[in-house]
Design goal:
This protein has helices at 21-47, 55-73, 131-135, 139-155, 173-193, and strands spanning 16-18, 77-80, 84-88, 92-97, 101-105, 113-116, 121-123, 166-169. With 196 residues, it is an alpha+beta fold.
Length: 196
Amino acid sequence: MHEAQSSSPPLSRRPLTLRSRGFAVMGGLLLLMAVGIALIGSAVLLDAATPSEGAWIVLLVAGAAGVFGYLLGFHPRLRLLEEGIELRSVLSTVFVPWARVRTLDAQGRGQLVIGLDDGQSVGHFHYGASLGGELIRYRHHRRVVRRIEDFRAQVGPGAATDREAGEETTLPVVPALCVLLVFQVPHVVAFALSPG
């Protein structure tokens, strides 16, 4: 007696988010620098007999450095979903269903390039060509490609989706404002506690 082999459906996976370590470190350093500026500005405000008008410039510089660090290092990402891959940069998000992905290339042009079924390609600035990448032969890029391939192998051809492939402008207003406000807390506290 011959048993019919049933093909098991692909595993359901939670979304996987990938970020560039180099950009995350750079963004983290900018955030640390902004924290230092904010703390120094707060100390100056607490030490001064009368708060200076220039202290608010320190507040804005610290907040701007914090926002820049966040936007550069932590906001952009590659997100792997059951339906496809989402590439978010500072001001835009590109979504590509798995059915449209034909190739993943991390060596050809020194960039992570996703080849589509219509001959076009999509890339991400965190995984672009760079001198550092040339020096280490794009190890991180190749590791990201392996993780994408592993994820894709587990989800199969991808879940059906009504979401169309394409690019949309996404302004990170809420996260940027949150970072800016976090950097204002030490200044507001120092201003409230300052004598006079």
